[in-house]
């Protein structure tokens, strides 16, 4: 009787999906089509990631490797093969020229443009957000948005004539002023979107404490918008640093050339000496790379700030 009851209970346990010790049975494996689709999706995703990595890494690798080649090695060796006899002669050739002047011009133009753009855009965004119910505030914001629809190439002739009338042609200011004008719309849009997420109660509390608009701008809006300010500063800096059209049209002297324009001068100076030109490209990208490494955390925080509010 006892043996029969024990066998019956054991049989019931197996039918209910549990073993003799009362532990749940192993879960069933997913159907084969589902597992095959999951494996295929992983293979496609991994292949796409590898392809994207190759598209990004291979040009940078070729750039650095070519800058370390001699003229003979460049014409005889495989383009992607490591240099047989690495040399820094190309970098010495570039540095012995006017590269320092071009680098200084690019730094002055970039820093001046970023400072003027960020300061003006922060004040404009603060005024638009604080007076969001005003009709003039809405009209002003729409005018800034309208600036996003104006292509740079379509207005280069009017800009050129304005610079001539202002007697600023062939100067660094001739590059800074239009660069600020074309960087303001996107900067104002980003800062307005960020400042709109700041609780109005914070502004009202400062008003109760007797703070004016300038005090709220400096003590409240600017600190809270620091991630967005770093983001737009890096973005605008990259655009100005890589800008080519304004320096090409609005300057003509060699001592006023910036790095993107100076690279064409190096090409003419070195003729078919591609390794020296690649060395100049590598040196011109180092400042941007350093800035990105130092500001990467603030940049990511600014890009993702809107998702956490």
Automatic annotation (TrEMBL):
<keyword id="KW-0472">Membrane</keyword>
<feature type="transmembrane region" description="Helical">
    <location>
        <begin position="43"/>
        <end position="64"/>
    </location>
</feature>
<feature type="transmembrane region" description="Helical">
    <location>
        <begin position="102"/>
        <end position="129"/>
    </location>
</feature>
<keyword id="KW-0812">Transmembrane</keyword>
<keyword id="KW-0813">Transport</keyword>
<dbReference type="InterPro" id="IPR035906">
    <property type="entry name" value="MetI-like_sf"/>
</dbReference>
<keyword id="KW-1133">Transmembrane helix</keyword>
<feature type="transmembrane region" description="Helical">
    <location>
        <begin position="141"/>
        <end position="163"/>
    </location>
</feature>
<dbReference type="InterPro" id="IPR000515">
    <property type="entry name" value="MetI-like"/>
</dbReference>
<feature type="domain" description="ABC transmembrane type-1">
    <location>
        <begin position="103"/>
        <end position="295"/>
    </location>
</feature>
<dbReference type="Pfam" id="PF00528">
    <property type="entry name" value="BPD_transp_1"/>
</dbReference>
<feature type="transmembrane region" description="Helical">
    <location>
        <begin position="216"/>
        <end position="235"/>
    </location>
</feature>
<comment type="similarity">
    <text>Belongs to the binding-protein-dependent transport system permease family.</text>
</comment>
<feature type="transmembrane region" description="Helical">
    <location>
        <begin position="274"/>
        <end position="295"/>
    </location>
</feature>
<keyword id="KW-1003">Cell membrane</keyword>
<feature type="region of interest" description="Disordered">
    <location>
        <begin position="1"/>
        <end position="24"/>
    </location>
</feature>
<feature type="transmembrane region" description="Helical">
    <location>
        <begin position="175"/>
        <end position="195"/>
    </location>
</feature>
<protein>
    <submittedName>
        <fullName>Carbohydrate ABC transporter permease</fullName>
    </submittedName>
</protein>
């Amino acid at each position: 009787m006892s043996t029969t009851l024990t066998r019956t209970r054991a049989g019931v346990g197996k039918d209910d999906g549990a073993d003799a010790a009362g532990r749940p049975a192993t879960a069933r494996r997913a159907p084969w089509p589902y597992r095959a689709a999951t494996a295929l999706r992983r293979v496609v995703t991994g292949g796409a990631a590898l392809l994207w990595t190759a598209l990004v890494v291979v040009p940078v690798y070729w750039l650095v490797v070519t800058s370390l080649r001699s003229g003979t090695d460049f014409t005889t060796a495989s383009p992607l093969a490591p240099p047989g006899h690495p040399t820094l002669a190309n970098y010495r050739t570039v540095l012995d020229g006017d590269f320092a002047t071009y680098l200084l011009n690019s730094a002055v133009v970039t820093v001046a443009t970023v400072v003027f753009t960020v300061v003006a855009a922060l004040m404009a965004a603060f005024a638009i957000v604080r007076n969001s119910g005003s009709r003039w505030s809405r009209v002003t914001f729409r005018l800034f948005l309208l600036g996003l629809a104006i292509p740079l190439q379509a207005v280069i002739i009017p800009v050129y004539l304005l610079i001539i009338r202002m007697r600023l042609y062939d100067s660094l200011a001739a590059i800074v002023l239009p660069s600020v004008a074309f960087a303001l719309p996107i900067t104002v849009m980003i800062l307005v979107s960020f400042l709109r997420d700041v609780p109005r109660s914070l502004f009202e509390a400062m008003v109760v404490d007797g703070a004016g608009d300038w005090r709220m701008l400096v003590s409240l809006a600017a600190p809270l918008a620091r991630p967005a300010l770093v983001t737009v500063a890096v973005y605008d800096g990259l655009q100005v640093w890589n800008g080519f059209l304004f320096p090409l049209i609005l300057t003509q002297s060699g001592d006023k050339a910036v790095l993107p324009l100076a690279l064409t001068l190096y090409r003419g100076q070195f003729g078919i000496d591609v390794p020296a030109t690649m060395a100049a490209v590598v040196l011109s990208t180092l400042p941007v790379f350093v800035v990105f490494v130092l500001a990467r955390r603030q940049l990511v925080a600014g890009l993702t700030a809107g998702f956490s509010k």
